[in-house]
From TrEMBL:
Organism name: Phytomonospora endophytica
SUPFAM superfamilies: EsxAB dimer-like
NCBIfam families in the cross-refs: WXG100_ESAT6
InterPro entries named in the record: ESAT-6-like_sf (IPR036689), T7SS_ESAT-6-like (IPR010310)
Family: Belongs to the WXG100 family.
UniProt xrefs under Pfam families: WXG100
Top-level taxon of the source organism: Bacteria
Protein name as it appears in the record: ESAT-6-like protein
Lineage: Bacteria, Bacillati, Actinomycetota, Actinomycetes, Micromonosporales
Extent of the signal sequence: none
C-alpha cells in the first residue's frame, strides 16, 4: 500500500533527522570527553581493554552518525523527486488544457 506524504512533511523529516543527528553528536562528544578523563585510571590489561571499548564506542557512534546522515539525504532526495513528479504531472495536464 503506497504511503502518502507531502513534500513539506518529507523535507521536515529530513531537517528533523539532521537536528537529531546534531544533538546525538553533541551527547556522544560529551560522553567521549568524560570517558577520556577516566582513561588514566586504568592500568595494564584493564587499560588496554578500556581503549578497546573506547575504539568500539567511536566506531559505533560514527556508524550511527553516518546512518542518520544517509537517512536525511534519502529523505531530501525523496522530497525533491516527489516535487519534480508533481511539477511534471501539472505540466502534462497544462499541455492538454485540463487545468
Amino acid at each position: 500500500m503506497p504511503i502518502a506524504a507531502s513534500v513539506e512533511t518529507i523535507n521536515q523529516a529530513a531537517t528533523d533527522t539532521n537536528n537529531t543527528a546534531e544533538s546525538i553528536q553533541g551527547k556522544l562528544t560529551s560522553l567521549r570527553n568524560l570517558m577520556e578523563g577516566l582513561a588514566g585510571s586504568w592500568q595494564g590489561a584493564a587499560s588496554a581493554k578500556f581503549m578497546q571499548v573506547m575504539q568500539a564506542f567511536d566506531k559505533e557512534g560514527n556508524d550511527m552518525m553516518t546512518a542518520l546522515g544517509n537517512i536525511a539525504e534519502i529523505l531530501k532526495q525523496s522530497g525533491a523527486n516527489i516535487q519534480a513528479n508533481e511539477e511534471e504531472s501539472n505540466s502534462s495536464f497544462d499541455k492538454f488544457g485540463m487545468i
